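Blackboard transcription, Thursday session:
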Amino acid sequence: MPQRQFGPATVDIDEEGFLTDFSQWTREVAAAIAKEEGIAELTPAHWKIIEYMQKEFKENGQVPSIRKLNKSGVTSTKELYGLFPGGPAKKAAKISGMKKPEGCV
Amino acid sequence: MEDKIKKVSIVVSRGGLDGVYPGLIMANGARMDGIEANLFFTFFGLDAITRKRMGKIKIATVGNPGMHMPSILGILPGFSAFATSMMLKTMDKIDIPPVPEFIEMVADAGCKLYACKASVDMFKLKKEDFCPQVDSIINVGKFYEISAGGQIIFT
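(Written on the board underneath:)
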């Protein structure tokens, strides 16, 4: 299994760079992945979404869909696309240390 | 590696749930992957963006071999409504929203929505008859102009 080094942390990843072991995730790993995805800095608005997604992921084992995020009251579809440009669900999942979302919507 | 798709323009030409959903899912999916997307609604596809109709789109139970049942059942009163409600419930569980919510979601995702001029004239509709997410009513020439440099998908 491929591994990546982010600062002091070594994480296991899949071939697309998604963490395969959520327990290896740290805020520093998140910031490093975000940079690679073109997000220079994770703002409080980003963190609110990341924390919500991780809570859902821990509870259900599933990456929440954009629709679910929009309905959660944590963010809106428009804000999500603005904060994670060029692929909000996948980028947010990657930064949050979760697997790649599988759904079509 | 092949060049990535950067832009898609999707034509929705059919009414009914099975006519409308594929285009919406493809447009939304494009935006989810950072692909520029346009939706062009024509003929009965216009139902999906027409205020009065968008919330009432049903699955055809007659003459639809995909229903896997004899058409004679499909003509029973209320059967189409029943099948539609079952299908919408199932879709809701996998986070595929009802048409009006889906239109809002795909527009919020940055997809542009257009209505076909010829169909709008044929059905005697006006801009006010459409949901606010519709950018404008355009002719075929304008559609090709907007689609330039991308892929066109007809559904």
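Lecturer's comment: Chain A has five helices and two strands.
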